UniProtKB/TrEMBL annotation:
Belongs to the amidase family. PANTHER family: GLUTAMYL-TRNA(GLN) AMIDOTRANSFERASE SUBUNIT A, MITOCHONDRIAL, TRANSAMIDASE. Pfam families: Amidase. InterPro entries: Amidase (IPR000120), Amidase_CS (IPR020556), Amidase_dom (IPR023631), AS_sf (IPR036928). Residues 21-439 form the Amidase domain. This is Amidase. SUPFAM superfamilies: Amidase signature (AS) enzymes (SSF75304).
Amino acid sequence: MELGLAGQADALRKGEVSSAELIEASLESIGRQESLGAFRVVREAAVEEAREADKRLAEGERLPLLGVPVAIKDDTDIVGETTPFAVAGDHRPAERDGEVVRKLRAAGAVIVGKTTTCEIGLWPFSESPEYGIARNPWNPEYTPGGSSGGSAAAVAAGMVAGAVGSDGAGSIRIPAAWTGLVGIKPQRGRVSGHPHTDPFNGITVWGPLARSVKDAALMLDVLSGSHPDDVYQVGRPVLPFVDATRREPGRLRIAVSYRTAFGVSGKLDPEIREAVERLSRRLTELGHKVFPADPDYGLVGLGLIPRGTSGVADWLDAMPNPRPEARTEVEARIGRTLGKRLLPLARKMDPYLRRKVGRIFRFADVVLTPTTAQPPLKVGAFDGAGYHKTQSGVAAACPYAWTWNVLGWPGVNVPAGFTRNGLPIGAQLLGHDSDEATLISLAAQLEVVERWTERRPDRAAGGS
């Protein structure tokens, strides 16, 4: 079936399809496209859970995603499964669901599996020596991105209509860009990562990947809400995000920027610039005021490095007998020796950086930038590379997304077209504090005229 999340949920409510049929189609699609490596674990328990969902539907129960198949990234606990986050080790099955899974189950969703990632989410590719490679459904020689690449591949290939990813430096938006999807990085604290109460010291958030803005907004509504133990608490919006997809955004002031943060290299591919410029013209045609303007990023990188490196160290140190790649261990070592020392300073810089970068919102409502500087990388592009070569290479390819993780503000990737050899390109809509609704409304308006939901990889034909 080619119904999205909302379409599947509606068909289930009307009795036009059963959850068992949807799960069977999803599992068949996963098996048929196994060579894409989207899943680290496929849950056979989903079959029985689908039967139970059908009973509940027959009894008149109604929930937002009751009986709908979805996928989660392999950094998220689900009871009975391990959470290796792509690192070899003596991992034990989780004894309880993480908050993301609890919320999905509370909404009735059936989780078909855990998707492939890279070690501790470090890179914009989803490859690891222990747990394999996720490939791009548009061309399997290329990566779907990372670190939520398995989730993106699963949705783009039609294995599921929606999946959860996490984003600590662009890890939802980058794979969304490189697979032609909508990917939402919510406001810091909007979605709980519990049992991680301060994931990667505040830069990582969980969010949805889907083909349509409506489906992504529906999943974000399901996921939203803080856990009492979370360091950052935002809570649910006044109105559901899915409502924002049904309303006009009004005439917005949109600043278009190609500037990267100080100290970050990254030559912008001409085809990506061309795609963003085309999208800028489209936004002008829709009645928005579109103009060039750059946020003043200052030394925003000082807010990222301590958080990221010490977060990797914390995650790795909590694993039983981990056996990471050498470059992952280097990142963790930097975190233990330097990152943790600088972490208090990074946190103290937050108000200053928000004021400095936030000045752009005195005269703009949204900032439009490329999501990445380069098109999808080849699979294996960094095989055997050491830490510094990998770090400098991926920083040049993806210099645009991570700044908003430091600030904690929301961002949405939207499909912006294709390269001449048929690989997807993305652009990101960046918003001010807690303003997901404006971004979602604008993205939904763009989707109507861009019609990106109609474009699918050839190999995904016949997917769910």
